[in-house]
Amino acid sequence: MIDSTPEWIEQRTGIRERRWATKDETVLSMATDAGRKALDMAGVKPEQVGAIIVSTVSHHIPSPGLSDYLAEELGCPAPATFDISAACAGFCYALTLAESIVRAGHAGKDGFVLIVGVERLSDMTNMDDRGTDFLFGDGAGAAVVGPSDTPAIGPAVWGSKPANVKTIEIQSWTEADKNPTGFPLIQMDGHTVFKWALSEVADHAAEAIDAAGITPEQLDIFLPHQANDRITDAIIRHLHLPDSVSVCRDIAEMGNTSAASIPIAMDAMIREGRAKSGQTALIIGFGAGLVYAGRVVVLP
């Protein structure tokens, strides 16, 4: 559909494949599948969930939030529910909020929060835009955050760069009727985003490691938002990560799934034996806003 080749795309981004949802695979159905799997793996029952946080830019109903529909599908009787819009940093933002809710004792009597990142970006991809149309995929990932006697979530390093707020935008609905998909389309100045990620995001990754009180050599896993392999390589060099740190490159099979990319990649690494429960991982997300959020965690 564009004047390109698979080799050109892979060289520039690391993407070889991506996944697009079928007509029957909605953001709700994908979030439900991921949420149910996360609860099962954590051994947490729906009635034990005190809050649900969903990060997405793909739920096109203004109200109620996707989290409300998700609570109904999962059979959670009365959780606090809300959505956030933090684009590709959304899962890390949700984790920060969930941790705060648990620590403050506002996650119900059992103290569990379900966080979900879910996107259906295929509807919002401009197939005439040579700079973005090969990037985005669909999917969902989830995790359960709960009380622990041993801290397993390091301090958050998060923020934004409002001066570059227009660098990545999604059109308003008033423009959507002109588009083939009928949905607002993603618009991005890729060059500016790339430069920002290579410089400032790399610094924030280093800050997250410092905030956790460890050194890069003590990390087991580096799990960045799956945006671009060249960005990942640059952050690795900036942090001077040793070869002993396993680096996630799930982008090769999944493309950029925005808020879903970190939990999808984490799940894949654990299932495939490339990461183990209890290992220490640096996670960092960055995207539209321009927003970023990173922290060191112990893998569930």
From TrEMBL:
Keyword terms: Acyltransferase, Fatty acid biosynthesis, Fatty acid metabolism, Lipid biosynthesis, Lipid metabolism, Multifunctional enzyme, Transferase
EC number from the UniProt entry: 2.3.1.41
One matching Pfam family: ACP_syn_III_C
Domain Beta-ketoacyl-[acyl-carrier-protein] synthase III C-terminal intervals: 210-297
Biological or metabolic pathway of the protein: Lipid metabolism
GO MF annotation terms: 3-oxoacyl-[acyl-carrier-protein] synthase activity
Protein's name according to its UniProt entry: 3-oxoacyl-(Acyl-carrier-protein) synthase III
Residue ranges occupied by any Beta-ketoacyl-[acyl-carrier-protein] synthase III N-terminal domain in the UniProt entry: 82-161
SUPFAM superfamilies (alphabetical): Thiolase-like
Record-level GO BP terms: fatty acid biosynthetic process
Classification lineage: Bacteria, Bacillati, Actinomycetota, Actinomycetes, Propionibacteriales
Keyword Lipid biosynthesis: yes
CDD domains assigned to the protein according to its UniProt record, in alphabetical order: KAS_III
